[in-house]
Amino acid sequence: MWELLPDEVLLLIFKYLKDSDLNHASVACKKWRRVYIEPCLWRSRTFEIRGYCSSQTERIEQMLTKYVNSMGEYLQYVRVVCHSPNLLTAHGMAACVDTLLSGLSSLKDGKKTIRAFQMSELHFHQSWGCFRSSVNLLADAISAFLRTQTNLRHFDMNDACMSRPHSYRIIKALLKSKSMKTLQSIHLLNFYDSEGITHNVGLQLRTLSSKCCCLKEMSLNYSYLLALFGDVENKGALLPETLERLSLLVNAGDFCQYEEGVMSSEHWKGIHSACPNLQVHFYMDGWPRNPTKMLVPKIPLAHFCIGGARSPHSTPFGRKTSLLLDHLALHFDTTLKSACFFADSHRPSSPSKASLVHFLIKCRKLTRLVFSECLVTLDYIFKMFYTSQPYLMSEQFTLHRCLPKDQVFYQFFKRH
């Protein structure tokens, strides 16, 4: 029966197999071997570099070299995951990454076939901070790889948390590559460590955004954006007009510094006029004292998400949520498409029904609204929608109750 399956069906099945199962399937018969070496099956790969002792490192490097030589020419989307290193495994993991990336760069077409490179969640400051030689080897490997690439479309190093010399080296290598003409998305959330936000970071990001003539998507911390614009008056001129999505993250530890100054409405007006198709996705990791301070008018806000804990003596979650709902309905009713509110608390604290109803009615483009169970309970929803506002539930929104892991939250989806 398996012999009668067409190659297209087998290829679809093989795409769902793990690498180990795929290797076993390749030796079953000649037909399966032929499907196994189909290029489209190897265009996207995730390489998980785990902790290896010194005796295993050499064998893993040989396996990576063999893989790169046989299948590397088909790779287009490369994702490298480094699990938490320790004193015995850090150098071996860095050596494996170096072997993989240098092997891909040395291929005849390896410099132009790779379109996406992702190496997120490195957490240099926490996981690699004690291993100086390993960190240098890893940073050198990434820099050398990026410098040779000519056709990268997507670059993702979210949560790298790198110190200044290594982060500067990697961005400098990216700037020197020919991929500046082809890059369409850059993701640098938490790329620099908390102590590395200096004037030089702003200059680097300014050069990066100005050189990427095809850039459509960019992810930055809010502090990076402030460093990027600095004291420049015409802030819109620093971003490419092709930019369509700007994702901004505000960390809980950064709230104090934003009390002094944030980007004004005039700045955002200039940015929007320079990038007419821009949509901003705003994420807050924590509940600040005044969550509306950074949400100034004129931001082309399409998505807003807030979650985490609050300080012990600050305003309750429910009151802050009401404040946010009123603010979003007042200033972003024509642009907002989705909003998410997650509260890390065991005490229920719901927003006012008037604020929520006003928000749902006012925001015409809203298609998705999410609340954690701490903010909106099932009893709260029943009383509001089925007794006071039945039209909202029955005609405009559908409700879904989700239970991912230890959380419960409710999602409202707008009917089309």
β-strand percent reads 15-25%
Largest sheet: 13 strands, mixed
Task: Name the helicity range.
Answer: 40-55%
**SSE run:** HHHEHEHHEHHEHEHEHEHHEEHEHEHHEE
Give unreliable regions as ranges. none
Strand order of the largest sheet: 1-2-3-4-5-6-7-8-9-10-11-13-12
Number of strand elements: 13
Query: Tally the helices: what do you get?
Result: 17
What is the radius of gyration? 24 Å
In one word, what is the shape? globular
Mean pLDDT: 83
Structural class call reads alpha/beta
Q: Name the assembly state.
A: single chain
Span between N and C termini? 44 Å
Walkthrough of the structure:
It contains 17 helices and 13 strands. It is α/β, with parallel strands linked by helices and 416 residues long. The protein has a 13-stranded mixed beta sheet with strand order 1-2-3-4-5-6-7-8-9-10-11-13-12. Helix 1 crosses helix 3 (30-36), helix 2 (19-26) crosses helix 3 (30-36) and helix 10 (199-211) crosses helix 11 (222-229). The longest helix has 18 residues, at 54-71. It is globular, with a radius of gyration of 24 Å. The mean pLDDT is 83.
Keywords:
single chain; 416 residues; alpha/beta; 13-stranded mixed sheet; 17 helices; globular; F-box-like_dom_sf; LRR_dom_sf; F-box only protein 39-like isoform X3; F-box_dom
Provide a short characterization of the protein structure.
It is built from 17 helices and 13 strands.
Show the helix and strand layout.
Elements: H1 7-14, H2 19-26, H3 30-36, E1 44-49, H4 54-71, E2 77-82, H5 90-106, H6 110-113, E3 116-118, H7 124-128, H8 132-148, E4 154-156, H9 164-176, E5 185-187, H10 199-211, E6 217-221, H11 222-229, E7 245-251, H12 255-258, H13 265-274, E8 279-287, E9 301-310, H14 317-331, E10 338-341, H15 353-362, E11 368-372, H16 378-388, H17 390-396, E12 397-402, E13 409-414
Parallel strand pairs: 1-2, 2-3, 3-4, 4-5, 5-6, 6-7, 7-8, 8-9, 9-10, 10-11
Antiparallel strand pairs: 11-13, 12-13
